[in-house]
Amino acid sequence: MYKKNNIILLLLLTMFIGCSDEKPVIIADFDSDIEAIISKLTLEEKVGQTCQITLDALYFRDDDNQVIEPGKIDPDKLEEAIVTYRIGSILNVGWHTYDRVIWTQILKEVNAPFNNGVTGVPIIYGIDAIHGVNYTQGGTLFPQEIGLAATWNPGIAEKFGTITAYETRATGIHWNFSPVLDLGRQPLWSRHFETLGEDPFLAATMGGAIISGYQGDNGIDSEHVVACMKHFVGYSNPQSGRDRTPAWIPEKYMKELYFPSFKEAVNKGALTVMINSGDVNGVPGHTNYNLITKTLKGDWGFQGFAVSDWEDYIMLNSIHRTAEDIEQAIISAFNAGVDMSMVPYSPQYKEYCQLMIKAVKEGKITQERLDDAVRRILRVKIKAGLYKDAMNQLNEYPDFGSEKFKATGLEAALESITLLKNNNHTLPLSMDKKVLVSGPTSNNLIYLNGAWTHTWQGADTAYNTVGCKTVFEAFKEKIGPENCLFSQGAELYLENGFEATRLIASDDFKTKAAQSDIIVLCLGEYPSTEKPGDIRSLNLDEEQLALAEMAYATNKPVILLMIEGRPRIIRTIVDSAAAIVQAYLPGDYGADALVKLMFGEENFSGRLPYTYPKYDGVIEFYDHPRSVDRSKSNDFKAYDPQWNFGYGLNYSSLVYSNLRLDSKEMRSKDSIKIEVDITNSGLIDVKEVVQLYVSDKFATIVPNGKSLKGFNKRLIKAGETETVCFYLKIADLEFVDVSGRWNSEPGAFDITIGNLITTFNLKI
Ligand code: BGC
Q: Which atom of ligand 1 is nearest to the CA of 194?
């Protein structure tokens, strides 16, 4: 084996020295190989490896510097970037969705210098395939992450990861900027829908499953991709709610809330990380040595590389003002531990490379630190299989966009959509009723998919997947055009960059409502993310509330269908609704799923992955400290959300019983076995999300009211009883104490599952 490696090494060295015409050799994943490559790289080549540019930087441009459409790679620009500057990575394509033939051509062109032996290190191409291959035509689009979290089914999350990885490789790309592991603790934030919800345990479990799906269990073969955990760390909690604005996160909450999903991802072997564009406690993510180098790479042993977010070293100078000039900005980010910078345009990338070279020559960046970054990047490139397989062949991926993949997209939507209210069995609907489908989100796929769909903001309808249905189309197909009326009632648009709603054709709405038995009213949000997705209030627009009131005034039963990335405040229209369904952003098969669920072909099993707020000014979380509720008599009930975290109804009737522990005492090294019986006394099978919460009764730091420590989604057939079992370890009882360390304290703990509570004692 050792000998074989030496031969491989020799071949490799020949390639670097001679830049021969031979095809690149397959190299093994050994540190000696990496060191051999590094020892042959020039300073310029090493610096190039740390630089990432966007595809747009390579395209032909007109006299006004606009990309000439359809985008085509300018060979001179390509040569300059890849051969002269030795750029190591390319990303994205913000304004297009290409088919696989075009993608393959692009990948072929950018990899040609390596494949022809002109350069010695392959390009790693990265893309945001965040809810399926959203930049490749014909791929499978899943619910956005918030919907995946609402499935509470790690198996679905893993399948999503597996299919997305396969289809990303079918596109020729090896690196996915996903999953978002930021905790959804600020519902105003435009990227709330990209998170896995508010709970660290749920986010860590689901995020870990997505990473297993992306990277596979046996290394990255031709059907898997390199995952990117993002955005390390604290990005999701901007104080103002606006994207990339300051967050304040005390050490305790950083450790208890924001770290666990990233730590679990590192344990699962995630190979890359993207850094938080904002600042936490006054320190920009990109200069945070303590977080990137000490914690992530040091304490957690992360071996992969850290990529910056979009232009973020430039932001250190222009926005954060922690660097007086670009040179200082580059140095501060690199020395904090950022290994690769998403520069991403020209001529900025040339300036980046020149300033990096200067900084190394002047000793402001050590050779050792540069080598460390390059070593990390090469390690990932080797693990990604790029040396042996810079290109994939189209015909190797027969399952791309296949019916079986679409069925999984539908399954994910079915398990995510959450029933929040169902008065008098309004749902399931019967086939003999006349339905009026209405509302601003009722008749366009862009509302079901949200941002990062075909384009960055996802609002361009030009690429909508042919054959996928809107809510109106799916209802019409189900009950026939004669039974399905349509009146949009209101439309969403952008006004000075902010989403707004305008009411339209109220007479049409009233006439058709009068002809109908029931109204399905689709409310929600305009697709958006990042800065363009900033909003000023969590309240649903007045016009949408007015449309709901107009619907109630008809005295027909009204089902509210919330198609939204954030939980918008709907308090004033909840009571009059006959039923309320939370769809999140369910993807291309969302409407099919909604119809199956609403007509009772399938049972609901989604559960809220966040606490649905009731008031704009009172944002609270289910695991709030016990001190939130000040009054013993409950007359000052501070915690009063619209719906609780973990909430969701279904068509079955479940009875929890017989909650039992194998011991009423836990000692340091024990674990406790917890069992509960759940009986489905209804007539319909259900997948029940069994949730286990632990409450520390007293602690030296105000304990949480309760914390999720286990869940299990289990099929319970009608009339049957299932026993669900959990194990609780001492680590599950720990919290971060005043000294900043994880600790557990003896005493009594409650365990809650469903409506049952029992208690045990921890003895240390
Ligand atoms: C976003 C990242 C994304 C990157 C590349 C940034 O603006 O914050 O999440 O991966 O762009 O598209």
A: 9
